[in-house]
Amino acid sequence: MDLSRRELLAASALLLARPTGALAEPGPAPTQGAAPASAPRPAQTGPILLCWNENPYGPSPAARAVISNAIPVSCRYPDEENKLLLEALAAHEQVPVDHLVTGTGSGELLRALGFLCGHNGGEIIAALPTYSELTDYAKWAGASLKLVPVDKELKHDLNAMRAAVSERTRAVYICNPNNPTGTALSREALDPFIASMPDPVTVIVDEAYMDFADLYAVASVSSLIPKKKRLVVLRTFSKIHGMAGIRMGYAISRPDVIQEVAAATMTTPNIFAVRAARASLGDQAFLTSTRRRILASRRKITAALTRLGLHYAVPQGNFVFFDTGMPLARFTELMKARNILVGRLFPPYDTWCRITIGTEPETDAFLDALHSVTSTRTT
Fold first, then answer.
1. Contact 231, 194 (CB under 8 A)
2. What is the DSSP letter of 346?
3. Is the pLDDT of residue 32 over 50?
4. CB contact set of 9 (below 8 Å; sequence gap of 6+)
5. Does position 217 have pLDDT exceeding 50, yes or no?
6. Could you tell me if residue 313 is left (phi over 0), alpha (psi between -120 and 50 degrees) or otherwise beta?
7. pLDDT value of position 41
8. 96/88 Cα distance (integer angstroms)
9. pLDDT for the residue numbered 58
10. Burial of residue 308, with CB atoms counted within 10 A of its CB: 0-12 exposed, 13-18 middle, 19 or more buried
11. What is the pLDDT of residues 184-202, one digit of tens each?
């Protein structure tokens, strides 16, 4: 997170004024209402980063304030405050506290699940392509992977994934909306799929990008958790909350599964992440503004792709996956020459690019560069 000079000075003043042993009460910081969706940004000096699916508007004003205020008490363990965060998450998700576990980003929880389900040769089924943190870690732990290609719309092929389930299958991983394709499955499609799973199989639904979905049929499956199935839903503060560098995520599941996941985690969240997450949950004005701005820029990109005749997958995240019409290595080189870094290769889609939604000026810069690159291609 980039703190402004004013915030750093305020934090330094707090350090000098408060006794080192004093505990600060975090409390909810005042929200900014209709304030801009980010603090003043420094002038662009390096390349425009549109390659990591980060939220360029950063943490909310409320989260920034509590992070600054937490500096004097960062010598304290955040165990009790993590309990308060779990209570806030329980109220937010409308589940009991024992249905939740926090992690250092949802990445830690994905790895924990990958280890639990994959060690000693456990079979895990996932889409190809999809977010690979769980499958990569599971493979390291000795898992057997079955990667099922996405369908012609670049969505998870649920029929093929269900057919791939065997007696050795321990888990099915679904990233919804999917990374890198950006496509999403409806609740109508997911509900019977989850219900059809054998009882020992854990269905892991990664909803990191759910807050950016705008199709009516796309919704969280967390309400299915009271059922008997081993369903785990993962959420993160890295995307809509703009806290990718602060690291906070959580899992929702039935209590026995939550205990298994908690036992496999290796770290505890830091006090800045815990307080920032609590504050951000309450800053709905900022979250709404951020979502509105990102979706508006996403529509601007897809409209431009349509005008240019470039195919793209229907996006439901804070990024767009599209066919550049040339080898991705060449497209990446041309964009880098224009000071823009774009997404990496996702085989077998050798000409496709995943572009993150940046700020409005960053989006405009990307579209100008895209027009220039495609004009070169067609002349």
1. yes
2. B
3. no
4. none
5. yes
6. beta
7. 54
8. 11
9. 97
10. middle
11. 999 999 999 999 999 999 9
The CB density around residue 338, as the number of other CB atoms within 10 Å, is 15
Nearest to 268 by CA among 239, 248, 282: 248
CA separation for the pair 129, 86 (Å, rounded): 33
Kindly state the average pLDDT of the residues 39-68: 87
What's the pLDDT at 20?
Answer: 32
> Strand, coil or helix: what is 313?
coil
Top CATH class, 79-282: alpha beta
Higher per-residue pLDDT: 2 or 328: 328
C-alpha–C-alpha distance, residues 378 and 370, integer Å: 12
Q: Are 87 and 234 in contact (CB under 8 A)?
A: no
Say if strands 352-356 and 319-323 run parallel, antiparallel, or are unpaired.
Answer: antiparallel
Two tokens at 132? 């690979």
Question: d(Cα 15, Cα 152) in Å, to the nearest integer?
Answer: 57
Q: What is the mean predicted confidence (pLDDT) over 64-83?
A: 95
Task: Catalogue the E-assigned strands of 177-252.
Answer: 202-206, 230-236, 249-252
Digit-coded pLDDT (tens) for 105-161 = 999 999 999 999 999 999 999 999 999 999 999 999 999 999 999 999 999 999 999
Beta strands in 94-245 (DSSP E): 100-103, 123-128, 144-149, 169-175, 202-206, 230-236
Q: Burial of 224 by CB count in 10 Å (0-12 exposed, 13-18 middle, 19+ buried)?
A: middle
Where helices occur in the chain by DSSP H, the ranges are 5-17, 61-70, 79-93, 105-118, 133-140, 158-164, 187-195, 255-264, 271-282, 284-308, 328-336, 360-378
In order of 60, 209, 215, 280, the CA distances from 212 in angstroms are: 17, 6, 9, 16
- CA-based nearest residue to 255, from 100, 94, 79, 115: 100
The domain over range 287-378 is classified in CATH as 3.40.50.300: no
The domain spans of the chain are: 79-282, 287-378
| Joined tokens for residue 315 | 């996006």
Q: How far apart are CA 32 and CA 36, in angstroms?
A: 8
What pLDDT, in 10s, does the model give residues 284-298?
999 999 999 999 999
